[in-house]
Amino acid sequence: MAKAKVSMTIDSHVFTAFKDYCKDNGMKVSTKVEQLMRDSTKNITLHKYIRQ
User: Fold this and answer.
1) Domain segments of the chain: what residues?
2) Please, what is the average pLDDT of the chain?
3) Which residues, at least 6 apart from 50, have a Cβ–Cβ distance to it below 8 Å?
């Protein structure tokens, strides 16, 4: 599966807390974000736009 580079603007406090969470749980930020995005689009209308 091809990967896409993205750029986002996120509150620095939120990002720092999320980055620390990922580090403490042995995961990469990008991998966790991808998992959250996949889980968020599983059973909603947006899912029809996601090609798997």
Assistant:
1) 27-52
2) 87
3) 41
Both tokens of 36, joined, read 């959250």
Residue keyed to tokens 């580079």: 5
Quote the CA–CA distance of 48 and 8 in Å, as a whole number: 23
How would you classify residue 19: left for phi > 0, otherwise alpha for psi between -120 and 50, otherwise beta?
Answer: alpha
| Residue 14 DSSP label | H
Q: What is the pLDDT along the chain (52 residues), one digit of tens a residue?
A: 799 999 999 999 999 999 999 999 999 999 999 999 888 877 666 666 666 5
pTM strictly above 0.85: no
